[in-house]
Design brief:
heterodimer; A: 168 residues; mainly alpha; Rna Polymerase Sigma Factor, Chain: A; Arc Repressor Mutant, subunit A; 2 domains; 7 helices; B: 263 residues; alpha+beta; seven-stranded mixed sheet; 31% helix; 29% strand
Chain lengths: 168, 263
């Protein structure tokens, strides 16, 4: 890919890919690395322009999946000596925002990987045919799968909200 | 037509059905309260998901601005992580400086920028909404220390359809229309003195300005049927995923189609 083409693609796709990967992984630093690596891999491929977007999202999803597995292994090793890297903020609104983020993250993580990928790709404006190709289902099944995934997310998110709101 | 299943309703809401099939679903829903309720439920769940995941973006500053890619370093030494990290940090720092005002405001709950990012205006699909103000990305503050501002709103198409109605803008206003891969349509107005008004309804967005300005209309590529009207006259349509221009074009640059309201 020519440098000027690559830069145009980078500028166009960066916000959407970055948001998607961050939502998928829940890890800001990993997401930044994954996005970079995805674009660097793109440099090594000469793809037709209209194939770049679905291609790079699939590459980023695979990289994110690997990261999540490695992170999970590392987490298990460290669990005996767990450290919290963040410090609790005294600001109520920071706390509330952090709780909302944690709730959404928890519910997203409870979804199957396919449901998560489908919902987040749909959120980035992918057509059903592109989503179907990325997750390996028939395009005519995507509507039903998305509807079910949304129901699962909504039910779990509501349940998490009720749990958080319940008195101890 | 028999009751559509959830998959069909979802595809209809996402504008993914063939036109004839979509018309069948729409007509059925108009006469079937049960399916209408199911479609409303799916739409609420979809909007709820969009709102929920938006909060995750709080953690990423400068998400919308990629900044310059360290392309030279990356291309000459594709395996050099150190170079990439250094370049990336600089790029991020530059990006953050450029969008400092907007990005900082984005972290403040209740701020206009936050509201714009969350698309709160579209929650009320049947009434006037308060426009929200976003800071423009700019390389340097303008003279006198006054930052230029822009107003904007994003809306979901209704069953793959959307009408954007621009009203009351001056004759020298330029309208930039482009297709994007986003799910939502976005309209931004820049440079106009005063604040334009945005009025949303099911599948419609009216933008009412009073003076000259630059109007940026971004329409989802996935949209099935959309029209941008100026004072009631159709100026641009989407047909088969392409922009169809119905009036003289002033310029066409980087995928934007630009026309002048008085042109």
């Amino acid at each position: 890919m020519k440098s000027e083409d690559f830069q145009a693609v980078y500028r166009e796709l960066y916000p959407s890919l970055s948001r998607y990967v961050h939502r998928f992984t829940g890890d800001t630093d990993s997401a930044a690395d994954i996005v970079q690596d995805s674009f660097l891999r793109l440099l090594e491929h000469d793809l037709p322009r209209d194939e770049v977007r679905p291609w790079i999202f699939v590459v980023a999803t695979n990289l994110a999946r690997d990261r999540v597995r490695k992170k999970e292994r590392r987490r298990r090793l460290l669990v005996a000596n767990q450290e919290r890297t963040g410090t609790a903020s005294s600001a109520l609104e920071d706390l509330e925002r952090a709780e909302r983020i944690e709730s959404v993250r928890k519910v997203l993580d409870r979804l199957s990987e396919r449901d998560r990928q489908m919902l987040l790709m749909r959120e980035e404006g992918f057509r059903y045919t592109e989503i179907a190709e990325a997750v390996g289902v028939r395009p005519t099944s995507v509507g039903a799968l998305v509807a079910r995934a949304l129901k699962r997310f909504s039910a779990a998110y509501e349940a998490v909200g009720e749990t958080n709101a319940a008195p101890e | 037509m028999p009751h559509p299943n959830d998959g069909h309703l979802m595809a209809w809401l996402d504008g993914e059905l063939e036109p004839q099939e979509g018309t069948g679903v729409r007509e059925h829903i108009e006469s079937c309260a049960e399916c209408r309720d199911r479609a409303d439920g799916l739409r609420r769940e979809s909007e709820g998901f969009s709102r929920a995941v938006l909060v995750l973006d709080d953690q990423v500053a400068g998400l919308a601005d990629p900044g310059p890619l360290p392309i030279g370093a990356a291309m000459s030494a594709p395996g050099s992580h150190r170079l990439r990290r250094t370049g990336w940090s600089l790029a991020r720092a530059a990006g953050l400086i450029l969008v400092a005002a907007g990005a900082a405001a984005a972290f403040v709950p209740g701020s206009p920028v936050r509201a714009w990012l969350e698309g709160r205006g579209e929650d009320d699909r049947s009434g006037e909404v308060t426009p929200s103000v976003v800071a423009l990305e700019t390389e340097a503050p303008s003279e006198g220390g006054v930052e230029p501002t822009a107003t904007g709103i994003s809306v979901d198409p209704l069953a793959g359809s959307l009408v954007v109605d621009l009203q009351g803008f001056g004759q020298n206003s330029n309208v930039h229309v482009r297709l994007t891969d986003a799910r939502r349509a976005t309209v931004r107005v820049e440079g106009t003195p005063g604040v334009p008004r945005f009025v949303t309804g099911p599948g419609t967005l009216e933008v009412i300005g009073a003076r000259e300005g630059e109007i940026w209309v971004e329409l989802p590529r996935s949209i099935r049927d959309a029209v941008v009207r100026v004072d009631g006259d159709a100026a641009v349509r989407i047909e088969d995923g392409r922009l169809v221009i119905l009036r003289p074009v002033l310029d066409s640059l980087r995928g934007d189609v630009v026309f002048r309201i008085g042109g």
